[in-house]
Amino acid sequence: MAKSKADREQGTGLWENLQTLIYALVIAGGIRTFAYEPFHIPSESMLPTLLVGDFLFVSKYAYGYSRFSLPGSPDLFKGRVLEGQPERGDVVVFRYPGDTSLDYIKRVIGVPGDRVQMRDGELWLNGERVQRRRVADFELHDRFGMVRRERQYEETLPGGRSYMTIDLRTSEGDNTPVFTVPSGHFFVMGDNRDNSQDSRFQVIHGGVGFLPAENLVGRANIRWLSVDGSASLFKPWTWPGAWRFERMFTSIH
Fold it and tell me: What pTM was computed for the model?
C-alpha cells in the first residue's frame, strides 16, 4: 500500500531531525578532538591557581596532536603532529605516564635541557634560584563555611612569568637532586608544592617523572565555571549559592 503524503512528510521530518543530530554530534566531536576539551579539577594539587570544582577549557591545538588527542586514544601513530612546545609556566593537562587513562594537570617548570632542583622548599632553575616573595595568605573557603589560611608565595620564572604557590610545611619534595630534563620531555610541578605528586617523584613512587611530550593533551586556557561543592544535584535552588561567580570566565595564568 502506498504511503500517504502525511506519512511521507513525517518520515522526511524524522530523517532531517536525525541528520541534524548527527551533524551536531560530528561538529561537537570535532571541536572536542581538535579545538577545546572541557576538564574539571578534582584535587588540590594546583592550589591556589585552581580550586576543586573549577571547570576549564583546554586548548587541544596549542601543542599539536598525539594519539591522546583522539577519543579512546587509539594507537594509530607515535609522537605529535603539528607539534608546539609548552613554555615554562604553562598550565597543562596530560595523560599520566603511569596510567594513560587518567588526566593530570600541572605547571611546566622545565623544558628540554633545563636543570631543575628544589632546595629547602625553593625552586632552582639552571643553577639560579627562582625569585619568590611572600604575599598575603591564601584563604580557602570550604562548603561548610570554614576558612583555611595557607602560606602563599609569588614565584617568577626567568622571562617574567609569575604565578602563586602554596608552601605549607617541610616535605619530601622540598629537597631534591638536580633533574636534567631530557629531549622530548618536560618537568611539571603542582602549585601546591607540599601536596602534589609531580616530576619530583618517579612514576614507581606515584609521581609523574619526566613528562613525555606525547602525553600532552593541551594547555589550560580559561575557567568557565566554578562551584564549591555545596549544591545538591537534585535541589536546583541550591545551585546559585554554590557558584563562585568571581572565578567564572577568567583566564588561567
Answer: 0.85
